[in-house]
Each structure stands twice: as structure tokens, then as C-alpha cells.
Design a protein that fits this description.
Blueprint: H1 2-22, H2 29-49, H3 55-76, H4 84-103
Helix pairs in contact: 1-2, 1-3, 3-4
Length: 105
């Protein structure tokens, strides 16, 4: 169950990062409220996953999902630039997540 909590927490991190961007420096009410709400949910699920997962594993996977997810949302939704170096960086993060997961079994 800890891995499910962790994956959902990582996906919620992507949501709050997107909403933070949409809040325009916390000047827009609803995206700002959404940012704080999804942050709370994400942190809560991360803390639940840490009851049984090692700190380093949980935190790396959580931030990795958030980083790669935010990159994908930025490219797909916000029309941010995508280039070979950015894609390679995202793939390296994914490789790190996979290796961390494999090493914790």
C-alpha cells in the first residue's frame, strides 16, 4: 500500500505544481487554494508511505514523479520548449526512479 500512496502523492505533486504556475505568484484565488489543498494531500500521502518505505527512496521517487510529471505537463499543456537535452534529463530521472525502486525490493 505504501507504494500506491507514494505514486499518488507524486501525481498530486504534479497537480499542485501546475496549479502553482496558474496561480501567478499566488495572485489568483482558486489556483492558489488548489495549490495549497493538493500540497497538503501530497505531503500527507508521502508521510503515510514513509511509515514503511525508507526516507531516501520515498523522497526520491516522490520528487522524481513530480519533476518528470511537471516537465510533461509543461510541454503538453503549457507549450514549453522541448529539446533533446531536456528529454534526456527527464529520462535520466525516470531511470533513477526505476533503479531506486528495484533496489528497495
Amino acid at each position: 500500500m505504501a507504494w500506491i500512496y507514494l505514486i499518488v502523492a507524486g501525481l498530486l505533486e504534479v497537480v499542485w505544481a501546475y496549479l502553482m504556475k496558474r496561480s501567478e505568484g499566488f495572485t489568483q484565488l482558486w489556483p492558489s487554494i488548489g495549490t495549497l489543498a493538493f500540497m497538503g494531500l501530497s505531503f500527507g500521502l508521502l508521510s503515510l508511505s514513509m511509515k514503511s518505505l525508507p526516507l531516501g527512496t520515498a523522497y526520491m521517487v516522490w520528487t522524481g514523479i513530480g519533476a518528470v510529471g511537471a516537465f510533461v505537463v509543461g510541454v503538453a499543456v503549457l507549450n514549453e520548449s522541448v529539446g533533446p537535452m531536456r528529454v534526456a534529463a527527464a529520462l535520466l530521472i525516470v531511470a533513477g526512479i526505476v533503479l531506486m525502486k528495484l533496489s528497495s525490493d
